[in-house]
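[step 3/7] inverse_fold.run input=structure_tokens len=265
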């Protein structure tokens, strides 16, 4: 069981402008809320309906821009709107991602499923970084957080081949950008969550509870993470508290990537 955590009270991002892709659900939604509570103006960019996204943004005192991050024109328009509305873009959380059931073992995964996952999970991060970097370089300030995964650094016999490959590529792209732009005032980090209790994971495991159990045994903390716990890491990477951290693979994974043998319950 997850113990109740105290609500955070820090305000490290007053007046900063934070864009969150995939901000209508799971890790993105929790992060959008946390960034707003830290004082940021939040722009939620998601595929979801205007009604859903508009309500989320209104609750945060922010802005919703309906965006398909696989479409470069929509990405360009979304960042232009964020910049025009608030005057800067200081934080970019590139979080939108999918994990469809058609993506499994390499022996069964067709090219359509492979390409779709690469488009949403990887190519979108390329579009988003390519679009936001000029704003940040011009400002001489910015924090980009690209959401990868612990599967970028570990292999799984319960394979999702395109997903894992996409996250490995997000991690290497992030490392390269972090190094390339290190002197510009722009930091670029990858957040690598362990398994997190979100709709993405719940859908995956609803179909196959044994698969959930099979994975849980590898997490030293004996539980999946919560979206709020990812949001705490996002707020840290977004803020000046992480001012000397760039090009990192920031693992927030309950210890899974360091474990050989896990504790008995
Ligand atoms: P989620 O399914 O709860 O939310 C994903 C959001 O992305 C949704 O709101 C969806 O509408 C949006 N989205 C999907 N395709 C989009 C597109 N083309 N354009 C714009 N928005 C789009 O997922 P989550 O579990 O919160 O995952 C968020 C990120 O964290 C993903 O990149 C995922 O791969 C990564 N991650 C998740 C876990 C986990 O266990 N949940 C672990 C490691 C990494």
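[step 3/7] decode complete -> sequence:
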């Amino acid at each position: 069981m997850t113990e109740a955590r105290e609500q955070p009270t820090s305000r490290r991002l007053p007046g900063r402008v934070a864009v969150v892709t995939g901000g209508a659900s799971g890790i993105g939604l929790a992060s959008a809320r946390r960034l707003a509570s830290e004082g940021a103006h939040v722009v939620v960019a998601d595929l979801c309906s205007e009604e859903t996204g508009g309500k989320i943004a209104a609750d945060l005192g922010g802005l919703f821009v309906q965006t398909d991050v696989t479409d470069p024109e929509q990405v360009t328009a979304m960042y232009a709107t964020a910049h025009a509305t608030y005057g800067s873009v200081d934080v970019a959380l590139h979080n939108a991602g999918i994990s469809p059931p058609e993506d499994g073992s390499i022996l069964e995964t067709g090219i359509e499923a492979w390409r779709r996952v690469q488009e949403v999970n990887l190519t979108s991060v390329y579009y988003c970084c390519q679009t936001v970097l000029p704003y940040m370089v011009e400002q001489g300030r910015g924090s980009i957080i690209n959401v990868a995964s612990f599967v970028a650094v570990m292999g799984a016999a319960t394979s999702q081949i395109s997903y894992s490959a996409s996250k490995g590529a997000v991690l290497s792209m992030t490392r390269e950008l972090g190094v390339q732009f290190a002197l510009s005032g722009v930091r670029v980090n990858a957040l690598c969550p362990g398994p997190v209790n979100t709709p993405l994971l719940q859908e995956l495991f609803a179909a196959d509870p044994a698969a959930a159990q099979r994975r849980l045994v590898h997490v030293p903390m004996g539980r999946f993470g919560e979206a709020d716990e990812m949001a705490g890491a996002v707020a840290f990477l977004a803020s000046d508290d992480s001012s000397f951290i760039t090009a990192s693979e920031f693992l927030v994974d309950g210890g899974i990537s360091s474990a050989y043998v896990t504790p008995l319950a």
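[step 4/7] annotate
The pocket of nicotinamide-adenine-dinucleotide is lined by residues 21-22, 24-28, 46-48, 67-70, 95-99, 120, 147, 149, 193, 195-196, 198-201 (CB under 6 Å).
The longest strand covers residues 186-193.
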